[in-house]
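User: Last request for today: this protein with N-(aminocarbonyl)-beta-alanine, please.
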Amino acid sequence: RINGERLWKSLMDLAAIGATEKGGVKRLALTDLDRQGRDLVVRWGREAGLEVTVDQIGNVFMRREGRNPDLFPIVTGSHVDTQPTGGKFDGNYGVLAGLEVIRTLNDRGIQTEAPIEVAFWTNEEGSRFVPVMMGSGVFCGAFSLETAYDARDVEGKSVREELERIGYLGDEVPGRHPIGAYFETHIEQGPVLEDADKVIGVVPAVMGLSWYDCVVSGMEAHAGPTPMGLRRDALQVATTIMQEVVRIANRYPPYGRGTVGMVQVFPNSRNVIPGQVKFSIDLRNVSDALLNTMHEEMLAFVAQAREKSGLAIEVERVSYYPPCPFHPDCVNAVRAATEKLGYSSMDVVSGAGHDAIYAARVAPAGMIFVPCKDGISHNEIEDARPDHLEAGCNVLLHAMLERPGI
Amino acid sequence: RINGERLWKSLMDLAAIGATEKGGVKRLALTDLDRQGRDLVVRWGREAGLEVTVDQIGNVFMRREGRNPDLFPIVTGSHVDTQPTGGKFDGNYGVLAGLEVIRTLNDRGIQTEAPIEVAFWTNEEGSRFVPVMMGSGVFCGAFSLETAYDARDVEGKSVREELERIGYLGDEVPGRHPIGAYFETHIEQGPVLEDADKVIGVVPAVMGLSWYDCVVSGMEAHAGPTPMGLRRDALQVATTIMQEVVRIANRYPPYGRGTVGMVQVFPNSRNVIPGQVKFSIDLRNVSDALLNTMHEEMLAFVAQAREKSGLAIEVERVSYYPPCPFHPDCVNAVRAATEKLGYSSMDVVSGAGHDAIYAARVAPAGMIFVPCKDGISHNEIEDARPDHLEAGCNVLLHAMLERPGI
Ligand SMILES: NC(=O)NCCC(=O)O
Ligand SMILES: NC(=O)NCCC(=O)O
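Assistant: Here's the final one, the structure of the complex with N-(aminocarbonyl)-beta-alanine:
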């Protein structure tokens, strides 16, 4: 069993770096605060006897040797960067749970068969630099190191120069680092576990995700003198699509998700009929087939709206992450550990993307969820219970031990 | 008959002050450009032998004496300020049509029974200082001089200090200036005349107008991990109200108008379910009874949406202008002049507010509309045909002559 108090204290110590007034954390990727956070975790790693490697995109691997040097390491981790109004647990928990596993093994003098590593990936949040999950994405070859290096923040600073500035531009070629299996503990970021009153979420898969930009173009005109029948009101057409996005998701339960999160109206004036509306569409589901059906239904509805309204409507897919089923061996290891430890649990398909989906492209991978208060994350009021965090870390320890590598 | 070419030339000369690259005009109230525009019109008035009075809110009256000094003047006018991306005709046409009437009377050596005055009212547009139709509003007592003086632009400059700076802080107490009858020529700002291929719009009334701010509050949450059934999506509820606004207007033709022009979504992030949506509602109709019915139906729908969704929904009325029927004598004078001159015409209820609705509170008033291209105004591409502008000015001349004052 791990030491829950020590885990909690480490979480709180790390959360002090970039702490916000409202109890959250603002520690954007590759800022001075991120450097301080990274330095603290690396210091703790070295104090626990770990050997530290940094790759060219700033991913950090901290290694504890196993008995058998020929085995690939069992890796666990997550990220230490946060959202601008982020919480204490998102990402940070996954890294410090890994560190707590190491400390526990040290306490007990247990030597594992395979080496064990704690990793943290660069810029998972994507708040400062796009794309999200950058470090793990480069690692698995989803996009190139050059693409990542060229990403710039709003001030025009590039990932490469910021990595160099904070001292985390490593030598190792990303992806060259061998991984035997990958586990990631994370707060659920949703309300399912709390709603069902379960402690551990066994994560069989991460939903696939399609992001779109939709633009409806009508004709702006004065709200008073323009009769209803002569209007080309872009907002009225856009709202029918916004509602359909939710109806589509509701047609494919339990994992269908449909969200319009971002809307811009032009010219956005009280007495002007909107001439143009831009909005985002976010569709998710657990299988390629279901996600594709949702995609087709959305496009069909848009085509129908275009015809019915006579307005120009453009839809462009701007991101796509395919559904990611985790490796049965890893999922079973998590399930077995949970049962052995006697925690209440259920399967929870992850609705949010995580570094684990990229890790899963290069090694067997799995995830462990713990509840977070009211399902809230990406918010300074994000919260989680110490006993739940301890439970997730215990499950991680035992899942890793169940799985001696490949 | 007035001189259409002279009218057009004056319109183009005035439009040169604050001309924009796209062919529009930017001459915001009480700026240096507004001063130049005012100075030019006043110079033209003096050249035409008019006596100029400025009141304490900067409204300008330019007087041509009549035979009978005991009669109140027949006043015509509009405004010379423009929107930030305004056109050449909105307001400016009404003032220069009045000046062209004077010039025509001078040319013919006609002395009228009642005095004739050309007025321009301060800050009709309300783009720089709120509220709109400020000069005529203070004049008729809709709000106080102090309220108007205290209005500030985004830089914090007040109406009073700007009036003083540009030299248009007059002596006369607003409202003390007697008006026998008021006529205003204006571009329609809508597509009705053009659609029906008519030259003159006889304006029997201006629609009443209710403005609301609506706020729907749900719970922001992550778009991926939050199941559809556990969401409190503020946008999905808001869109039902946005659509109902249009349905309500369609239930009360031909003058019902319903517009949602302004929308703000919080936090407005692609993968966050909207926690709050603020939007504007603009309802209009020609009678108090109809507008009130629309108001009640909107509130009833909101109450129903509140109950059905469980979300907090607030609606606040932020402005109200009652419907303004014009005086039958003035409307008939316009109709008679149009018929006498043989122009094609129709009745067009004004959907937009004008200085004439405030003038109508203190004197018999009427308006004359001419078509504008595609019904577009408050836009640099606003356009109108010289022959239509000439026709409207001829109707103004004859309507004023038909109406010898009270
Ligand atoms: N974990 C997380 O918030 N990932 C961002 C991408 C997503 O919306 O799933
Ligand atoms: N003429 C005009 O645009 N007035 C502004 C108020 C309104 O929306 O009617």
